[in-house]
Amino acid sequence: MSALPRADELGIVGCHVCRQVSQASDDPHARCPRCGAGLHRRKRDSLARTWALLIAALLLYLPANIFPIMRTQSLFTRDDNTILSGVVELWRAGSPDLAIIVFTASIVVPVLKFLVMGYLLISVQRSSEWGARQRAKLFRLVEVVGYWSMLDVFVVALLSALVHFKVLSRVEPLPGVIFFGLVVVLTMLSAMSFDPRLIWDNRDSDD
Amino acid sequence: METAQDLIVCEHCDTVYRREVLTRGQVACCVKCGAVLERHQWIGLDGQFALILAALIVFVIANATPIVSLGLSGMSSATTLWGAVIAMWNDDSQVVSVLTVMTLFFFPLSQILIFGWVLWFARDGRRAPGFARAMVALHYVKPWSMIEVFMLGVLVAVVKASTYFDVIPGAGIWSFAVLTVLITIFASHDPRELWNVTRETPA
Ligand SMILES: [Zn+2]
């Protein structure tokens, strides 16, 4: 299988915006002859950028989970919900299926992103040879599911707009939701900065 | 000698392949890393343009009509997408407000308009004015459009609210559902294919 040529070895480069294949050059300002987007053999400073964004996301992830994201107020009660307690409430309200969906989008997906991106970064830095195909799959999984974490942010926005019955009943957003929205954006940017081709660089075998 | 047009590079692992003509339902995958190289584009350009036009109309309705309304002992309260945006702004969550506007209004709308613009010309095999710039913009906007996540969010909000209130679905919820379906149909279509089916028009 090692007969499969890689663009880098052939001295060509595929444009990441329009897929046009052209001659690779050492010019850092090289542009795609077809669409004009910047051409890079590999994404610039991929590892450093991915780490920086991932760590920033991780720092905001703490307040996003500790602070409540939403306050439900009625005549005699006031109830602050965190992301986790929102899931529990949904479960108790008799919608275990939706509770599982929200749990997946709000808790499993972000944690998965931190673990997978961290693992990919470390394995690339150590020029790991192991399971390149599996790692490539993990990256694509993170790319596909990443933005579904925005679910809870939209739920809070909708409920805050809807539940507006003066003193009788009221829903308000709380700071946790801001942190959580930023976490989602930062983890998406982090995944976009990562260059999956790095998984396949510096390897001798092709398994 | 092969020309660059015959080659395709896997975006995920940099492996080079010779382009193959795909037939209906076929998907070309990278044998090395398993990523999708190319899919057969089963909707023609006219069809795609019609779908984009439909998406634009539905998008306008989705933005202008109430998504759901709640009833509580004779009172009622409804919201549109913009109601949610304004509520977040007024409740000290401007960051969320901006995120909502961008991911549910600005990016999806730009996507629809830009894609519609290039498709209009591409139907005759031509490249629209500003084609290259439009294609680059489409590439960067795509991951930030989150209509389908919002659709799921509406369902979750409805279920949460229905424990305490009467929930009456509005036209908005159906529009977002239709948009989600349209987005799913387009998911198998790579706009970059337009580069291969259009030619530069002589100025
Ligand atoms: Zn590949």
TrEMBL record, chain A:
Alphabetical list of Pfam families matching this protein: PqiA
Subcellular location: Cell inner membrane
Keywords: Cell inner membrane, Cell membrane, Membrane, Transmembrane, Transmembrane helix
GO cellular component labels: plasma membrane
Transmembrane annotation, as ranges: 51-70, 98-124, 145-165, 177-194
Protein name, as recorded: Paraquat-inducible protein A
The organism of origin for this protein: Luteibacter rhizovicinus
UniProtKB/TrEMBL annotation, chain B:
InterPro entries, alphabetized: PqiA-like
Highest taxon listed in the record's lineage: Bacteria
Pfam families listed in its UniProt record: PqiA
Key word Membrane present: yes
The UniProt record lists the keyword Transmembrane: yes
UniProt KW keywords: Membrane, Transmembrane, Transmembrane helix
Membrane-spanning parts: 49-75, 95-122, 143-165, 171-189
Name used for this protein in its record: Paraquat-inducible protein A
Organism: Luteibacter rhizovicinus
